[in-house]
Design brief:
mainly beta; Methylamine Dehydrogenase, Chain H; 2 domains; 3-stranded antiparallel β-sheet; 18 strands; 39% strand
Amino acid sequence: MVAAGAGTSGECRVEDWAQVVAVAAGNVHTASNTGRSHSVGLHADGTVMATGWNGDGQCDVASWRGVTLVAAGWRRTLGLVGDGTVLAAGRLADGACQVSRWRGVVALACGDWHSVGLTADGTVLAVGNNRRGQCAVDTWRDVAAVAAGYLHTVGLADDGRVLAAGDRSAGACDVGAWRDVVAVAAGSYHTVGVTAAGRVVAVGSNDSGQCDVAGWREIVAVAAGSLHTLGLRTDGTVVAAGNNEHGQRDVTGWDAIRLPD
């Protein structure tokens, strides 16, 4: 395991993790009252580990079993169980952990204060803070993947189009013209997509250069933080754009990085 960034709360202490098949980072928008986060790892045997800030119990996942996928938001961790149900640990106040009734879920995403689930039939569920309409996804159909930012939610449709709900002030929901997209990611105020040709598109806030990805090639996956964007190349190396105040773009030398099976 490798990690880059501030690590002030221990969220980068992953060097001893082994037999990990998937990871999630508890991203949060940049503000004067944020900055602490946590990291989550999924073992091949379906157990889960976490490190970093645990102020709301978001790292209390040691008892989880049978987990196939993990997601992390600010003060929250979600785990998808093999039977399509979802586990949650962390802050209860905003309702983003109210996922116990979800069934048939195949993918998860965490925004700062809302949680999103993709079901096997291509519909989408969402709970938590909905003050900007980020949970207004109940009419979405034929969705293949989901992502969640600070105040917006993104869905990748089966036909390569992209849907968005939530705050539009920064332009992060301006994805209506995108076509042939195969993967999406959401930062706090920006949205990123990978096309079938391996190129990358981005919309939204670009204050730190997080949307300066037009020159990237041979990309197979992307991830978005609060003010930065990462891209995984076909050769296993990683490219980065955006803010590097805490070393979160220091990925030079990373190689053999792969997607979860």
